[in-house]
Design goal:
By secondary structure, the chain is α/β, with parallel strands linked by helices. It has 2 domains: 2-120 and 278-296, Rossmann fold; 123-274 and 306-323, Dihydrodipicolinate Reductase, domain 2 (2-Layer Sandwich). The protein is built from 10 helices and 15 strands. The chain has helices spanning 11-20, 36-46, 54-60, 75-84, 99-110, 126-136, 166-169, 171-188, 277-290, 299-318; strands at 2-7, 26-32, 49-51, 65-68, 88-92, 116-119, 143-151, 191-198, 208-216, 221-228, 236-243, 246-251, 258-262, 267-270, 322-323. Helix 1 packs across helix 9, helix 5 (99-110) packs antiparallel against helix 10 (299-318) and helix 8 (171-188) crosses helix 10 (299-318). The protein is globular, with a radius of gyration of 20 Å. The mean pLDDT is 93. The protein binds nicotinamide-adenine-dinucleotide.
């Protein structure tokens, strides 16, 4: 039985702890958080041993796997400490706040004897898995254009309002758009160049909308949009893949969200599927440890998404195309 300790019991830490109850082969035994109220919540919700810091948990808790759910700017330092403590590591996306931090993690992870997985949860989300399979099976033929949207919800509320501090969070591109970047990279390979626009710095700090146009080395063009601009709107995502022989679309607001029109004129619809993608990504991590294999999303994969997200931020800042 793999013993799990969660570091950071905020929004996503609570979701992971609940998801871990559905994962076989592991047991949640500890939680660490600097906030006493969060610690009290974790103890009450899951009856686990609680610690006031990551360091305290790493030093004394009997855990095999640490699940890092702290704000983005702390991912690298806490991952390094977990590596020093010789733990298996699952860390929320994005891999890190900067390229330097990300590179350090890639370098150190290469010789590391424990497993490290990164929480790019869209890889475990059924409609996106379905979309990927359809495209890989050639249902729409050679892909030309991809369009994604993610957002619409209110500005995220976090510990000490860290999302509103761009230096800590990287804004909507690093926090939200990176989900779709990771998905597109997994499906279409390397990106050649990026051009992006963002409202960052032009509107109130808590209204951020960004658009990026990517050209992949294989010729695919993608338009990604991410938004924290609607104060009370529903969170939703959309995805559209257009190829020579057809079009597949997904819209999380629809009752039959995934639909396909292919070259033969056939139209298919797939209804909503009720699985918990957070449980699936954590199950993958546990099985990676049990079976001595790599988790589905590696540090290198997450570094790729980080690199393109930071390039988009740079493009939005300078108004220039960024070549990768
Ligand atoms: N995959 C997803 O769908 C998803 C969704 C939300 C957030 N995230 C990611 O998860 C991370 C956390 O986001 P969140 O929304 O849960 O933030 P949050 O602010 O709600 O929670 C962060 C928690 O970490 C604690 N914390 C801060 N510093 C700490 C430290 N040094 N040691 C231990 N605990 C500490 C805070 O007290 C807080 O409880 C971010 O990187 C974010 O990008 C991913």
């Amino acid at each position: 039985m793999i013993r799990v300790g969660v570091i950071g019991y905020g929004t996503i830490g609570q979701i992971h702890c609940a998801a871990l109850q559905e994962v076989s082969g592991c047991k949640l035994v500890a939680a660490a958080d600097v906030d006493p109220e969060a610690r009290a919540r974790a103890q009450k919700d899951f009856n686990v041993e609680v610690f006031a810091s990551a360091e305290a948990m790493l030093a004394s808790a009997e855990v095999d796997l640490v699940d890092i759910c702290v704000p983005t700017h702390l991912h690298e330092s806490i991952m390094l400490k977990a590596m020093e403590a010789d733990k298996h590591i699952f860390c929320e996306k994005p891999l890190a706040r900067s390229l330097e931090e990300g590179r350090r993690l890639v370098d150190l992870s290469k010789g590391y004897r424990r497993k490290i997985g990164i929480g790019h949860v869209v890889r475990f989300t059924p409609p996106y898995i379905g979309m990927r399979q359809s495209v890989e099976q050639g249902e729409v033929g050679r892909v030309g254009v991809v369009r994604t949207f993610r957002g619409g919800s209110q500005f995220p509320v976090g510990w000490q309002d860290w999302f509103a501090n761009f230096e800590l969070s990287g804004g909507v591109i690093l926090d939200l758009m990176i989900h779709d970047l990771d998905f597109c990279l997994a499906l279409f390979g390397d990106v050649e160049r990026v051009y992006a626009k963002s409202t960052y710095g032009r509107t109130e700090a808590k209204l951020e909308h960004a658009m990026a146009v990517l050209r992949f080395k294989n010729g695919v063009i993608a338009h990604l949009e991410a938004s924290w601009t609607s104060l009370a709107g529903q969170f939703y995502t959309t995805l559209e893949v257009a190829g020579k022989d057809g079009l597949i679309t997904y819209d999380s607001r629809q009752s039959s969200p995934l639909s396909a029109v292919t070259g033969a004129g056939a139209a298919g619809q797939i209804g909503p599927v009720s699985v918990n993608p957070y449980a699936l990504e954590l199950q993958d991590m546990v099985e990676a440890i049990e079976n001595d294999r790599s988790p589905l999303v590696s540090v290198e994969d997450a570094f790729g998404a980080l690199e393109v997200a930071l390039a988009a931020i740079e493009s939005a800042r300078t108004g220039q195309v960024v070549e990768l």
